[in-house]
Design a protein that fits this description.
With about 280 residues, the chain is α/β, with parallel strands linked by helices. The protein has 9 helices and 12 strands.
């Protein structure tokens, strides 16, 4: 776990929930008393696709406001082979069909971007679920042990997110991978866990020892669709789950998402208030 964090939980805001101009979200973070950012896209481009000068500008804008960048929400391993057929996937401006020969280069790029932004946390996924005969698995991926070594040398932690469109999204698969790779941490998305019917206190307790970053989003599900809403107003049972994490893993960063399209700023404000009332960044 990143020892730079104190025992007080960090409340983290992603600026691209508001605008592709990161300064809009940065200013909202300042107004809400949130001191940390999660970075993913800017100017309609994935951060991994930006040149160093643009990344340095983003870092300078954050520094000028007294904000630190807590995590890089990279799209690593949210990919499949070029001959596979991915379904509907939000990869935030990054290609989903990725030749094996190109993948190490993108790992190196993510580590370089993290260094420019000054963060020690980089998200990864677990390969897209595609045709059975073409679906890859992290257990047999020779790139991951190499990437973990490179990340450790760079002072970075690779954190695996539980994403339903990827191969590792259930608690048993996550626990198997995290036990197999001791250098890998968990980027736990509680909304995704609820989506697959596994957001229970028991499950979160089992995963808690591996958690190094938490994603917060909420939704109401009906007729097979998700309607996103401010955190604490939807179906995800946050109150008991947060209690488990507070008891087991004090000092975690909590990245607040919303995906609410009509009033993202209002949703982020409401979600931040909910999290603070439940002991996050209070």
């Amino acid at each position: 776990m990143d020892t730079a964090a104190t025992q007080e939980d960090l409340l983290v805001l992603n600026p691209d929930e508001l605008s592709q101009d990161p300064t809009v979200g940065m200013d909202l973070a300042v107004s809400l008393g949130i001191g940390s950012l999660e970075m993913r896209t800017s100017g309609d481009a994935n951060l991994l696709m930006l040149d160093d000068s643009r990344l340095e500008h983003i870092r300078a804008e954050a520094d000028a406001r007294g904000l630190r960048i807590a995590a890089l929400a990279a799209p690593l391993w949210k990919w499949c082979r070029p001959e596979a057929t991915p379904g509907r996937v939000d990869s935030f401006g990054f290609p989903t069909r990725m030749p094996v020969k190109d993948r190490a280069r993108w790992v190196e790029r993510a580590l370089a971007v993290a260094a420019i932004l000054g963060t020690t946390r980089v998200r990864i996924f677990s390969h897209l679920r595609v045709e059975a005969e073409l679906t890859e698995s992290l257990e047999h991926d020779h790139l991951l042990p190499w990437a973990l070594e490179r990340a450790e040398a760079a002072g970075v932690r690779l954190l695996l997110e539980n994403e339903p469109v990827c191969t590792a999204h259930t608690p048993d698969r996550l626990l198997a991978l995290l036990s197999l790779y001791p250098g890998l941490g968990l980027w736990l998305d509680l909304g995704n866990l609820h989506e697959v019917g596994a957001a229970t206190e028991h499950t979160v307790g089992a995963l808690a020892p591996f958690v190094e970053y938490v994603h917060i989003k909420d939704f109401r599900q009906h007729d097979g669709h998700r309607d996103f809403c401010p955190a604490g107003t939807g179906d995800v049972p946050y109150a008991p789950l947060l209690k488990v994490l507070h008891a087991s893993r004090p000092g975690l960063p909590y990245g607040l998402e919303t995906h609410v399209k009509d009033d993202p700023a209002g949703a982020l404000c409401e979600g931040a208030g909910f999290l603070r009332r439940n002991g996050v960044g209070a």
